[in-house]
Amino acid sequence: MGKHILVVGSINLDLVVSTNRIPQVGETIKGNNFQTFFGGKGANQAVGVARLGHPVRMIGRVGDDEFGHRLRRALDQAGVQAEAVRVTPRTPSGVALITVESQGRNSIVVVSGANGKLTPRDIERKLALVRSAGLILTQLEAPLETVDYLITAAARSGVPLILDPAPAQKLPSDLLKKVRWLTPNETEASILCGASSGAVTPENARSVAESLLKKGPENVAIKLGSRGVYWATDHARALIPAFKVRAVDSTAAGDAFNAGLAVSLMRGATPLEAVRFASAVAALSVTRAGAQPSMPTAREVSRFLKVMEKGGNNT
Ligand code: ATP
Ligand code: RIB
């Protein structure tokens, strides 16, 4: 199976309301249903990797509240090696307030809690996990100085790293130059390029990808929701359309994509093969409710890809 994938990032409890539509500012609407799920971009990606059958370790923080103990147990139960997930005294766990509308699209507010206390020192203590990893996955729900420290440590050790620049924020070129894969969604890509570039579409994805590549990452995969993914490196590019599925909840589709990308690259796939595999993992996740419960197994993905190759659909 080879080296482990290391995930450094957030762990949240998701408080999810389903509604017919996302409310406007100042508006009160009735919800249809309320559920809690285990989430957090880091934890979702770690669970995604574990479901796909690859060894995965995680560095992160939970609070010393009831949520924190449940979140850590959920990682263990999913097969994520979470000894480096610390319980933070006198601090609440991260939570995400999520509204999912009838087409499966969402809006999310994250309150960092313990994730905001993940420090460079936490990474320094676990440098052996960084150096021995085959690949690293990280996002931006932990403090930027911690992510920066991790990216520099990974680059020094020659370990490839996939950065999911979510939630959206501008990033220095210094940091982006050390990233093997940058995987923004439409909003994140647009903010990284400077707000003047406007919304990203399949039509302008090529020029957005080019301007992102100029900032330094080796590969860019722009996640375009139900319109697919635009992948680019300095000598090749392609739009990979999304698989056609019946969307129930797109929460963590991006995390499922990154987990699939990491596992596939670790298995020796080409970038294009890895993006296609990741798109299948993400498409399956969209057909299920919740973040971590929506991550598919390797067997489910290979069955899905066989059906799709025969021209079937999953709608
Ligand atoms: P999140 O922040 O909720 O994890 P994201 O905004 O980062 O998600 P999306 O662009 O919504 O990511 O989705 C990631 C990938 O998942 C897409 O590029 C696509 O491959 C797949 N996907 C998303 N929505 C759908 C859909 N409705 N049908 C099929 N595939 C989808
Ligand atoms: O990417 C989806 C995740 O974003 C949710 O699980 C939520 O916790 C937020 O971190």
Model description:
The chain has a single domain, classed as Ribokinase (UDP-N-acetylmuramoyl-L-alanine:D-glutamate ligase, 3-Layer(aba) Sandwich), CATH 3.40.1190. It is built from 11 helices and 13 strands. The protein has helices spanning 41-51, 66-78, 120-125, 127-131, 144-157, 173-176, 186-193, 205-214, 253-266, 271-286, 298-309, and strands at 5-8, 12-18, 33-39, 56-63, 81-88, 94-100, 106-111, 135-138, 161-163, 181-182, 219-223, 229-232, 237-240. β6 (94-100) and β7 (106-111) form a beta hairpin. The mean pLDDT is 95. The site of alpha-D-ribofuranose (RIB) has 16 residues, from β2, α1, β7 and α9. Adenosine-5'-triphosphate is lined by residues 166, 185, 223-226, 228-229, 242-243, 245, 247, 250-255, 257, 279, 282-283, 286.
